[in-house]
Design goal:
The chain is mainly α. 71% of the residues lie in helices and 2% in strands. The longest helix has 24 residues. The N terminus is likely disordered.
């Protein structure tokens, strides 16, 4: 069989793109079920392989970003797992200590020290800001990179270092993405609520708990 009847007449690149997106969706499901760093890393490696194929075939950046989105999600998930683990450096002292009692070394996980450090920094980014940034990249066809996410980490480390433009962008982006899914009546109620919150901030400089 040369091709599915439904595929006849469709450009080969489009058929390939749909095939790769279907693989990404299956890996997305696998990522949700992962319980260990090794399992997450296996999914990340597969996603990076798919992304490489898509880039080699010069597919649209938005399609490639679907793979990059879940690669970044996998890296951030591993950062969270690493923070919960009691890892030791892997030096001679740690190796000797393992002879006395079982301990987990950095060398025991399938990541480099640089990756371990970066992924934990990614996990420190507040979820709403992290998701808004990824969604903005997807919507605007901006390439999702670990470097870009880490720059976001530097901006969010100290509240006072976040620029006004960034604050406005992130607040507006999150509000828009949520409101877009709500019924009109809900959007109107939320609009009044935001006006009230805005007035309170202007009058008191903050929001009462």
């Amino acid at each position: 069989m040369i091709a599915n009847n439904a595929d006849i007449g469709r450009p080969l690149v489009e058929i390939t793109m749909q095939s790769e997106l279907a693989k990404i969706d299956r890996l997305r499901t696998d990522l949700i079920d992962c319980a260990t760093i090794d399992e997450v890393e296996m999914v990340r490696v597969d996603l990076k392989g798919i992304r490489k194929i898509m880039r080699n075939k010069r597919m649209h950046e938005r399609a490639i970003n679907v793979a990059s989105y879940y690669i970044s999600r996998a890296e951030r998930a591993m950062g969270g797992m690493l923070k919960e683990m009691e890892l030791h450096g892997g030096d001679r002292q740690s190796e000797k200590a393992r002879l006395i009692k079982p301990i987990l070394l950095l060398s025991d996980i399938p990541l480099t020290p640089y990756e371990s450090h970066d992924f934990q920094k990614m996990h420190d980014i507040p979820e709403p800001i992290y998701e808004a940034y990824l969604q903005w990249c997807v919507d605007e066809d901006k390439r999702i990179t670990r470097t870009g996410v880490l720059r976001l980490s530097e901006k969010t480390k100290e509240p006072g270092t976040l620029g006004v433009e960034d604050c406005l962008f992130r607040f507006t982006d999150v509000a828009f993405n949520w409101c877009e899914k709500w019924p009109e009546e809900h959007r109107r109620v939320m609009g009044h609520h935001l006006v009230n919150l805005g007035n309170e901030i202007l009058e008191t400089g903050g929001i009462r708990p």
